[in-house]
Write a structure and sequence with these properties.
This protein is an alpha+beta fold. It contains 6 helices and 18 strands. Strands 1, 2, 3, 4, 5, 6, 7, 8, 9, 10, 11, 12 and 13 form a 13-stranded mixed sheet that branches. Strands 15-18-17 form a 3-stranded mixed sheet. Helix 1 packs across helix 3, helix 2 crosses helix 3 and helix 3 packs across helix 4. The radius of gyration is 28 Å and the shape is elongated.
C-alpha cells in the first residue's frame, strides 16, 4: 500500500509545481489548502520547484526560435504566447522526466524480515542506519524507501542516521514513530507497544498526541487506542538484550515471559493468575538455552513447569 510518505506526496507536488508556473493559474486557495493539509507538502513542493528551476533554464536554452520577417522590429503577442506555451510544455515534460526516474526507483518495494525464537539479525540500511531484530520478530521494510520500517510483531533496536529533510519513520500498528537523531528500541506484543529511547529524540504520533521522547524516556501503550504512559528508563539499558542482559522495571510477568521467549528460543506461558504481576530486575540469558527457564523462574518469584510445547510460569506456591 502506498503511504503519504512515498510517491503520493511527491507526485502531487509535481502537479502543483507545474500548475503554479502557468500564467493562467488561479486556484491559489486550493493550493494553500494543500500546503496546510500536511507539513510535508511544503518540503515536497520546494523540492519540485528546485528541480523545475534547473529544468526551466534548460528549456529556455532549447526553446525553438520563432520565424521572424526581416523587417520585424520585435516579436508579436501571438509569437510570445506560442513560445511561452512551448516553455511550459517543455518544463512539464522535463520536470516529469527528471523526477519520474527517481520516483520509479522509489516505488514501493516491500519485503519482510522474520527471525525465529532465539535468533537475532542485523540489517544495514543504505543511508547508514542499522536495525537489530530480536528473536520471534517480523519487520516490514521497503527497498524503495529505506527511511521506513513497520514492526509487525516482536522487538527491534533502531540506530538511525538523522536527516531532518527525510526523517526515519517506524510504524507499529496504528502508532507512528518519527526520529530526530535517534537510537531507540521498540517492542510490539499484540496490540501493546513499548518504546524506549537511548539517544536523541523520538516523536510519537506527530499528527495526533505529538509526544516527544528524549533519551532516557519510555512510552508504553497498552492496547490499540489506549493512552500513552510515560516513564524514565536508564539509557544504557535500552536494547541491552543484544548482550544477553534483559532489564525490567515494573514489567508484567507476561511481558517478561515474551522477552525470555525471544531470547531463549522456547515457548513460555504465564498462568493468568500472575500474568499482570510486576517484576523489576535484570536477567542474564547470554549463552543460555531453553533449559535455563527452570533456573530463571525463582528470580521472577515463580516456578517453571514443563509443558508439551515449552514452559509455563506459575506461582511459586501453586500445586504441581
Amino acid at each position: 500500500m502506498m503511504t503519504d510518505t512515498g510517491d503520493h506526496i511527491r507526485l502531487q507536488a509535481i502537479d502543483w509545481a507545474i500548475a503554479t508556473q502557468h500564467p493562467d493559474f488561479s486556484d491559489w486557495d486550493g493550493f494553500a489548502r494543500w500546503l496546510e493539509a500536511d507539513p510535508r507538502h511544503t518540503l515536497a513542493y520546494d523540492q519540485a520547484l528546485a528541480a523545475a528551476g534547473s529544468v526551466a533554464d534548460l528549456a529556455a536554452q532549447a526553446a525553438p526560435a520563432m520565424p521572424r520577417a526581416a523587417n520585424d522590429e520585435e516579436v508579436g503577442p501571438r509569437q510570445k504566447t506560442v513560445r511561452r506555451r512551448w516553455m511550459i510544455g517543455a518544463l512539464a515534460a522535463s520536470l516529469l522526466a527528471v523526477i519520474a526516474i527517481p520516483a520509479w526507483q522509489m516505488r514501493p518495494q516491500p519485503y519482510t524480515v522474520t527471525t525465529a525464537m532465539g535468533e537475532t539479525r542485523s540489517i544495514d540500511l543504505p543511508d547508514g542506519s542499522m536495525i537489530v531484530i530480536n528473536g520471534g520478530s517480523r519487520l516490514g521494510l521497503d527497498r524503495g524507501n529505506p527511511r521506513f520500517a513497520r514492526l509487525e510483531t516482536g522487538e527491534a533496536l533502531f540506530e538511525v542516521q538523522h536527516d531532518a529533510r527525510d526523517p526515519f519513520v517506524v510504524e507499529a500498528g496504528d502508532v507512528r514513530l518519527v526520529d530526530a537523531g535517534t537510537a531507540f528500541n521498540v517492542v510490539r506484543t499484540g496490540s501493546d507497544l513499548d518504546v524506549a529511547v537511548s539517544e536523541g529524540v523520538v516523536i510519537v504520533n506527530p499528527e495526533r498526541e505529538n509526544v516527544r521522547l528524549p533519551a532516557g524516556r519510555r512510552a508504553v501503550m497498552a492496547g490499540a487506542g489506549s493512552g500513552i504512559m510515560l516513564s524514565d528508563v536508564v539509557p544504557d539499558q535500552v536494547g541491552s538484550w543484544r548482550s544477553g542482559r534483559l532489564s525490567f522495571a515494573g514489567t508484567s510477568l507476561a511481558a517478561v515471559a515474551a522477552a525470555l521467549e525471544r531470547g531463549l528460543g522456547t515457548r513460555i506461558l504465564v498462568h493468568p493468575s500472575i500474568a499482570a504481576r510486576p517484576f523489576s530486575g535484570v536477567v542474564q540469558i547470554s549463552g543460555r538455552g531453553a533449559g535455563a527457564v527452570a533456573a530463571i523462574a525463582p528470580v521472577l518469584g515463580t516456578r517453571a513447569v514443563r509443558r508439551a510445547d515449552g514452559w509455563e510460569l506459575v506461582s511459586d506456591d501453586a500445586l504441581p
